[in-house]
Design goal:
The protein is of the alpha+beta class. The chain has three domains: 123 residues, Aminopeptidase (3-Layer(aba) Sandwich), CATH 3.40.630; 154 residues, Gcn5-related N-acetyltransferase (GNAT) (Aminopeptidase), CATH 3.40.630.30; 99 residues, Nonspecific Lipid-transfer Protein, Chain A (2-Layer Sandwich). The protein is 27% helix and 33% strand. Strands 1-2-3-4-5-12-6-11-10-9-8-7 form a twelve-stranded mixed β-sheet, with helices on both faces. A four-stranded mixed β-sheet has the order 15-14-13-16. It starts with a strand and ends in a 12-residue tail after the last helix.
């Protein structure tokens, strides 16, 4: 019987969840009230009435250069054990690329369980997701925070995240769905959960930091519990110091703090950054879906001037394929068909450059930027300069 690729059928949600537990391991039971993409954004494979696999498309956006770029997140790619080896995952991904390319998505991002499949469809490593660890004592930054309990739907919490996220390349510009999903992930941690806002020193009603955490079993013999921080964002270094100091107030009973936060940024902020443990460290992959739209949508450093004649290899999306001229001027970027096709690279490597993860010189030395002159390498470095790409959401 032929395999068909279509929307997840109504009533098959729990069956898809059961397959996901076979793929990713057991966890919490299926929650029909949970946050899931609609079925028309869930690509499924069927053999007759038998569900063989599915993937989910998260409609969101990511910040790059201070501007929001429409993004399709790929998550929950699963194939039933009896259907593995039939090319189901490849067909699901091919259909997702078609759907995203016709729905206004500029880029796509995912967390790979295998890089081989996703590289074959134009994805490349593009940033990191980290959960570094520190002792509670090292979190004491000498601040004097004023903390208040807040709720996740407090508009000040979301307003602060939006302000902070826009300054981090790669952070999600959270939609209502992705914000609810982030909270669902936090609330599924072992209770109780605590969410605090750190108030500003002036009379404004805004918050300067937010900390969301829960207690978990300790990994040491000298404490009662460890602290798992899932929400941590702050307006500046002083606010981050106050947030960390607030967490350190648990020092008489807690041992280790695990924080969902960019590890390199946290290491630079701590007094004893050399003692920060790497903890969980995942790499995510990205792919330009509509390359001209993606180049035009992101922000660039003021004063950047660059022009590179590219020959882009993209077998999956023909509109991206072939000769294009990349230009950045006056804070705006463009990618237009034509030009001299002097520097050749595939869409995955261009995607990795785009986020700021890959270095053009490295790609050239590795033979992945053929024909590039030193001036081209310098131009690409200028074009995509900025903070290291990170994400604090998992999907």
């Amino acid at each position: 019987m032929d395999i068909t690729i279509e929307n997840l059928r109504d009533g098959d949600e729990e069956r898809a969840f059961a397959i996901s537990q076979q793929a990713f391991g057991p966890g919490a039971p299926y929650d029909p009230a949970g946050v899931y993409p609609p079925n028309d954004r869930t690509v499924a494979a069927y053999r007759g009435d038998e569900l063989l696999g599915r993937l989910k498309i998260l409609d969101s956006a990511q910040w790059f250069g201070g501007k929001s770029v429409p993004m399709g997140g790929i998550g929950g790619v699963i194939v039933a054990p009896e259907a593995r080896g039939l090319g189901v995952a490849s067909r699901l991904l091919d259909e997702a690329l078609v759907r995203m390319s016709t729905s206004g998505v500029a880029i796509s991002t995912l967390y790979p369980t295998t890089a081989t499949l996703y590289r074959s469809r134009g994805y490349e490593f593009a940033g990191t997701y980290t959960r570094p660890q520190m002792s509670v004592a090292d979190a004491d930054m000498g601040g004097s925070p004023t903390a208040i309990a807040v709720t996740w739907d407090d508009p000040r919490v979301r307003a602060l995240y939006d302000k902070v996220g826009a300054r981090h390349n790669g952070w999600l510009d959270r939609t209502d769905y992705s914000w609810a999903s982030a909270w669902q992930g936090f609330s599924k941690a072992k209770p109780p959960h605590y969410l605090y806002g750190i108030e500003r020193d002036d009379s404004t009603d805004e918050l300067k930091a937010v900390v969301g955490y829960s207690y978990v079993s300790t990994s040491t013999n000298h404490s009662l519990f460890d602290i798992d921080v899932r929400f941590l964002f702050a307006t500046d270094g002083g606010a981050l110091a106050d947030a960390l100091t607030f967490l350190s107030s648990n020092g008489t009973t807690a041992g280790i703090i695990t924080a969902l936060y960019p590890s390199d940024e946290l290491r630079l902020s701590l007094r004893h950054g050399q003692r920060l443990d790497q903890g969980e460290h995942l790499a995510w992959m990205s792919r330009l879906i509509d390359a001209p739209t993606a180049i035009a949508a992101r922000g660039y450093l003021d004063g950047t001037e660059a022009e590179v004649h590219l020959d882009i290899i993209d077998p999956s999306i023909s509109a991206n394929h072939g000769a294009h001229v990349l230009r950045v001027t006056n804070g705006a970027g463009s990618l237009e068909p034509g030009g001299r096709a002097e520097a050749t690279l595939d869409i995955g490597d261009l995607s990795s450059l785009y986020t700021g993860y890959a270095d053009a010189g490295f790609l050239a030395d590795a033979g992945r930027l053929a024909g590039a002159e030193p001036s081209d390498i310098a131009s690409l470095r200028r074009a995509f300069a900025g903070s290291a790409p990170t994400i604090v959401d998992f999907f």
